[in-house]
Every structure is written in structure tokens, then in C-alpha cells.
Design a protein that fits this description.
The chain is mainly α. It contains 2 helices and no strands.
Length: 92
């Protein structure tokens, strides 16, 4: 199975997210549970927003790709048609 860059990034972000959510820090930096909850909430918001933005960008790029592939096909057909006519005109 092929993974795009967005899929790989999403997987990495989910691993980081799981590590932070389920492994509270050992040191006393976040001894206050409220501050740890706040950090988890900010991380969740950041990761969800980042994933949303990446998916929107991916969808836009996929749409552009489809349009450009169709334009390329039309251009190739046009060139093939007119080149064949040009060659046959000057060949005779």
C-alpha cells in the first residue's frame, strides 16, 4: 500500500499525540494536573487543526491534478491530430 506524505505525517502526529496523552510526564514540571490537561487540550486542538488543513490542501491538490491531467490529455490529442495533418500535408 502506498502512503502519501499527508498519511505518513498524520500517522506520526497520532503517535506523538498518543504518547503525550497516555504518558504523563514523570518529572514535576507538570505536577499540577490542570496544567497537564491544558497542554493535552492544546496539543489535541493543534493536531486536529493541522490534520484538517493538510486534508484540505490534499483535496485541493487532488482536484488540480485531475484538471491538469485532463488538460494534458487534450493538449496531447490536439498535438497528435495537428502534427499528423502537418506531416501528411508536407509529405505528399
Amino acid at each position: 500500500m502506498r502512503y502519501g506524505k499527508n498519511t505518513v505525517l498524520a500517522q506520526k502526529m497520532s503517535y506523538i499525540y498518543v504518547d503525550i496523552i497516555f504518558r504523563p510526564p514523570v518529572d514535576s514540571t507538570f505536577a499540577n494536573l490542570d496544567s497537564w490537561t491544558s497542554v493535552r487540550k492544546e496539543l489535541r486542538n493543534f493536531s486536529e487543526q493541522s490534520l484538517r488543513e493538510l486534508e484540505e490542501e490534499r483535496a485541493a491538490l487532488m482536484s488540480k491534478n485531475v484538471i491538469l491531467e485532463e488538460q494534458l490529455k487534450e493538449s496531447q490529442d490536439y498535438i497528435d491530430k495537428h502534427l499528423a495533418r502537418y506531416v501528411s500535408h508536407y509529405k505528399t
